[in-house]
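Why do we care about 3D structure at all? Because function follows from shape, and shape follows, mostly, from sequence. That is the central idea of this module. The next example makes it concrete: a single protein chain, its amino acid sequence, and then its structure expressed as tokens.
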Amino acid sequence: MADRSTAKKALPPSKRKPVAPRKVKDDPVSTAASIPAAAKAETNPNVRLRLEKGIAELQGLHELLLSTQIDADVLADLRDALNRVRNTAWVAQQYVLRKEIGPESTSVPSLLAGERIRATYQLCRALSDDLTKPEIELPRGSLLELQEATKTLREKLKKRCQ
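And the structure:
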């Protein structure tokens, strides 16, 4: 990932190579499984310092993104990483808050699944609206892949909700 995470020189749109669609990487639950240990480290001043440095770095990236052109594959990797960090931070926060309530609180994988359900619900509503707008062009191949994925999800939901 070192090669992909380094910023490449900005190219004018006419000289950029087209980027093939990428498969979305799974958000591994194994990342979330380490949250309880991370939650215990909240008293560690090094954790706070690293997070504060990370926040400052993200603010710097914000400015960089606004001021220059960056390759699409680097932007996709950045967005994937930011989404994983955002979701994991939310789950970690929920875990810490619920742990204060008591030991019977929801598990980290359950919190992560709940967040995925919430995000999927919002995306489904937005996509449903997009599908009714004729001015929005949607690639047929992606729609077919989505149809297959939702078919599988629907079958699993049906079994789970019975």
